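Co-fold these.
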Amino acid sequence: MTRTYSALSLLREGFNAQQGWQPAWRDAEPKSHYDAIVIGGGGHGLATAYYLAKNHGITNVALIERGWIGGGNTGRNTTIIRSNYFFPETANFFEFSVKLYEGLSKALNYNIMFSQRGMWTLAHDRHGLEMLRRSANAMLLNGIDAELHDGAMVRKLIPGLNENPRFPILGGLNQPRGGSARHDAVAWGYARAASALGVDIIQNCEVHDFIVENGHVRGVVTSHGAIRSDTVGMAVAGHSSVVAAKAGVRLPIQSFALQAFVSEPVKPCLDTVVLSPATGTYLSQSDKGELVLGAGLDLYLSYAQRGNIPWMERAAAGVVELFPAFSRLRFLRQWAGICDVVHDSTPIISKTDLGGFYVNCGWGTGGFKAIPAGGWCLAHAMATGEAHPLARGFGLDRFRTGALIDEASASGIAH
Amino acid sequence: MSGWRTDSGLVVDRSKPINFEWAGRRYQGFVGDTLASALIANGVSIIGRSFKYHRPRGLIAAGLEEPNGIVQLERGSHTLPNIKATQVELYEGLVAGPVNARPSAEFDLLAINSLFKRFIPAAFYYKTFFWPNWHAFEPSIRNAAGLGVAPAEPDPDCYEHRFAHVDVLVIGSGAAGLAAAEAAAAAPGNERVMLVEADCEFGGGLLASADELEGSAPMAWRDAALARLRALPNVELLNRTMAFGFYDHNLVALAERLSDHLPPHQRKGPRQRLWKVRAGKVILATGAFERPIPFAGNDLPGVMLASAAQVYARRYGAVPGQRIVVCTNNDSAYAAARALHAAGCASVAIVDSRVSPGAPALAAAECGIRVVQGAVPIAARGRRMVKGLDIAALDGRHRQRLSCDAILMSDGWNPAVHLHSQSGGSLDYDDALQAFLPATAVQNAVNVGAAAGIFDLTAAIAMARDVARGTAVRYPAPAPVGPTRRFADGDPKAASAWLDFQNDVTVGDVQLAARENFRSVEHLKRYTTLGMASDQGKTSNISGIQTLSALLGKAAPAIGTTRFRPPFDPVTIGAFAGRATGEDLSPLSETPSHAAQLALDAVMEPYGRWSRAAFFPRPGEDEHRAVAREVMAVRQAAGLFDASTLGKIEVKGPDAAEFLQRMYVGGIRTLKIGQCRYGLMLSEHGVVYDDGVIARIGECHYLVGTTSGHASAIAESFHEWLQCEWPHLRVAVENVTTAWAVVNIAGPRARDVLAALGSDIDLSSEAFAHMQIRVGAIGGVPARVQRVSYSGELSYEVAVPWRYGASLWEELMRAGKPHGITPFGVEAMMVMRLEKGFLHVGSDTDGTTYPQDLGFGAAIAKKPDDFVGRRSIVRPDGLRPDRRQLVGLEVIDGAGPLAVGAHVLPGEAVEARGTQGWVTSSAQSPTLGRPVALALVERGGERMGEAVRIWDLGTWRAAKIADVRFYDPSGERLHA
Amino acid sequence: MLLIDCPYCGPRSEIEFRCGGESHVQRPGPHDAASDEQWADYLFYRHNPKGEHRERWLHMAGCGQWFNVARDTVTHKITAIYRMGETIDAGAGS
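Predicted complex below.
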């Protein structure tokens, strides 16, 4: 039986015809009662379950997933990890997430392949350059690594950029510790570690309703029957408002489809993550060799995880504008994820008007990078009833008070 | 080297040889060949290496489902990585080679990976590379991964887009597609029918068939059908055109290859064309893909799909071997056996997993083909190519070895349901066919023929015609396929039975995944990478599901299938970009005086969608000196500035004043005719969105000025409020930005210059004061003149019809010459407005700035009415005392200007922590001879005179908070 | 890519239009009578249904008119189109 992953265990199992590997996680049948229930088996939900057990010693936890774990946005994003944020609230939170990511492979004994090859944001005009400088300074003042480079240096550090672009490249802001990771591995790594600590992972289990007594949640009714608990956390980005509505909780969220694409795999040709604000295109090259591209949202409500043509054209044009040689590469696959969009693009990690019911949602297009911190903070809220200091600005109350944390507007960088 | 060329081949022209180069060696093929068929005919059996283990790989398919034959085509700027040899039409001088094999496909150094195969099973990389960290290993993994090499030079080709609207779109030109197109064209009401075929030849399976169809030979049937279709006026036929995406509302995307089949030097015009076809009805005649059989060693070069061998032999006259064993569980492979037998192979044997012989078996036996019933392949023999095949009964008994140099396999057929699935249609698993069939459609689309699981050609044609006519008929269920041998969990041979040939996923890997609880089909795919290669699992997905199904004892439908994603086959990125490249990506607008300004040596830069003069350097001047000179010229004499880009929106109607009163922070209702007023506009969220000057031209007529970047958006938002929120308001809105060219003449001599041009407007300060508008004529041209100033000097904005813009510019330059007129650009204007402390929305504001942060709090308090955004700015956050407010900054350390984007920290700060705001505008003031800056600073308004520290990329500066009005604070100059 | 039947111009592709979000959202007022909660509700809280959604669209590259659309957010099927100021019954299009 091989439980710990290492080069040695691979060697041993190589001689053992791979027969000794254990299930990465246990598929559990639900018990009737848990100390806590986490709805949603994506990265955030799995991380929440793991940190409930790891940080708070709450191991009698059910994680309920409607489909298969990691099958939502965790498995359909462009895997970018960064903390190039402007405001202290967001910068501190996402930086904490990056730091957790940096130690995650060892912490989980699961190689999530966090590849810190830099995250570049380009500036295409004078104003863009000024805004990058403002952001770089904000990052540095928040203790985050940032480098501001002029156009010549950007070209030197990112070979292949267009020599004659429509949108001039006047400079770039790099976060060297930014990068990408293997998205599925993050879900599986957390699932394996949470399961090992006693968390019940229950797949193919849909929440139909909430059990509410006197303004407090007492459990959920699922396709596997009623499961009771006085503490319920929800991390179902894309469907947040739909699930929360079953608990009678309204959320300031709209669901939009985000299109993403990969090219066929080629030998290394792009060594970093590049975002061009002028075209809204961002791309990187995975370890497998595929160019991974993100585009923008189809700006009408959608719960269909289907591809669409307009953004594919815009993203392609954006790629060709940045790297004219990539024009001859081919798109291999297109898909869409459903994003929780809130007005200020800042997440919601909050208690709700329903006692014992906590939500983790509103990640917009950038939830993947926040998985460790999102899980950490939701677990904290569920275990203590209080917002984690890093998530104090992420409450629902800000929509009433107007204390929004509007990163995109303040920094001019899409978040 | 066992492949060879027969003396026939239906579509290959033996009279036209073609020379080509493969992996550095010269070969010959014929017109009609693909690179794949030519390589087979030339006996090239190892065509590449697998992704992970670098095992030798030969071709297994003849179409776009090919997982192995991945090549690098051409060199230099025309190079294409990852092209399937089966899709490359041979042309004279073609140069290609294998990918991911060093130094060659025949001998690949990384084949050493194969020796370690047992230690690097599926997903091994999640279990190791922890110490010291992933970065220590990643570079070598990255270098080993990837297939071909991306071009290094810009793409020399261009691409284009086309739209089409058709009544019926037929996808696929096999017998079913041709029949469907013809029937659809004849059906009443169908004015436009389009038939598309991914291959260069129409005909699909007919190109390799030997069976008569409706009394004709298959090619004769095809030719007749094509001739009839070509004669029809309402039919459009597109070959080399792949339908790759089925999107919402019956939009099908096609990729047409226009010149890829020609030698690079003969290519003209666009290389590819992306079609977006909106179809009333889509008929999917997309055929089916044959499944490989999982058995040990099934990845050896020489193992091939039966249908592929049939296509190679009949269509191209290329045969993969001499001694052939065909393994099958269904009847279709008998046609392949007959084709190879007819081609003259030395021996052909059939191994059929079904126990009792059917009619094809009896017929084959009559031809002298050996048929072994109730047997399945166990293991291919050979190291670099097939030498033999061990077969046995399903229970493993009666093992025997057949000597052969090619093994053909058919494990049944998977209908090509990709487009159906993309369209949102559902799938049903058919136990008889062991395949997923299209079930319900969500859009107006129908599957016919093999795509619907109807493999009998006569039935497929009948079905296609019925569907095209709109009549529904039931068709007899096809014969069930025979059994497939599955591997027991733990069978060591499972690790050498391939499912995904390109990504190196074996049955053993699926067993490992199941053991580790990756049992959902999506987990299986993602964990093992099965089906994620550049063929997107066309030969592996369903086999993987069946393997898992057998392993778990769970029905295939319960395991499900992964969703089919566009594109059906990879599509060139450049084709999606189309013409949206270079300047055409986002064409820049030019003002009428663009050329005149260039003639004055203007440095043009893009500002948003406009190309504008940044500054006008004289010989030897850098930007800084040019801007300083331009500023001083305006301050001391007169300057000319092209302001045509400023937004101009006409608002007319009895309720125009009421409407603008609701749109702007300040009061508009009290504005008198001929007067102008500064207006600040908020978003409904309270954020400062735009500013500009609103002028009242007539009783019910206003001219709204906006910033250059926001003109369209504001006009659009006016429409939205009027149509959706206040439909009762009688207001008409028109964006006239590009109807009026505007020249701004500024400086103490501005009036003299303007007067020199001649005007019926009284320009005297008494008759025409600051913040007024006059309508009249300037130099004989109708003009609207506003006396407004962003520079702080006496200033007129003269608007004339767009076509007079250039001449107005030139006339003013001439008339101004005696007054020392100087053209100035955006940068000088920015310096001057900064000296004046005039706001630049977007620079001095951001998405968090409320009007009270800019000093508009008192004005708002006086206005009783509601306006857009009003309620938002008095939410608790808007009332916080520590909001960032716009202030001036004076440098007190004697150094140069502060950097825009530098942050403001408290005066006592010692640590680079805790920002209080940031510098939003900054310049060295030529007028004042010292640096000036604006900043958004916490509680800035109450901190006048306070010293602060400025931090920028590690450097500290000192400044003090000051009034924003650095120059002429009382505004005497602009009232001059 | 959606095909939207503009009530003024006829069916056109999605790229000619812009979606303005949920229809029939009431703007609270007068401004000094609306509570923070009411205002937050108006600004941020939408139904966001998984199913039929009433939304308004602008034919931006056409007639410049706004109109209402009832569309399923899962299948993207459009079940009704009606002009500003008009209403339809729930599920009228389906």
